[in-house]
């Protein structure tokens, strides 16, 4: 019974990981690719790790630590990548309406690096 539950978690996690890869291919610019890849891969990795915990109950504590690590590092790294892309003027897609960072004090830093 636990193997079936673990298999379902792993399968759903694999679907989310597949959608993350598909999002990287289908999204129009770097910012939306980063967002699509990060959200889906974070959830996909967590679901796979939960599924592994059902298969190997003795690994549960280690897998919880890995889930915590994924929850902390994926959003932080995607934020850093997006910020760096913005600072080097990576173009946004033409359908982007608002650049929220352009209204902050950052443009002076951005112009100084030009």
From TrEMBL:
GO molecular function: sodium:proton antiporter activity
Keywords carried by this UniProt record: Membrane, Transmembrane, Transmembrane helix
Listed transmembrane segments: 6-25
Pfam families the UniProt entry points to: PhaG_MnhG_YufB
InterPro entries recorded: PhaG_MnhG_YufB
NCBIfam families: CPA3_mnhG_phaG, PRK12674.1-2
Protein name: Na+/H+ antiporter subunit G
Species in which this protein is naturally found: Paraburkholderia antibiotica
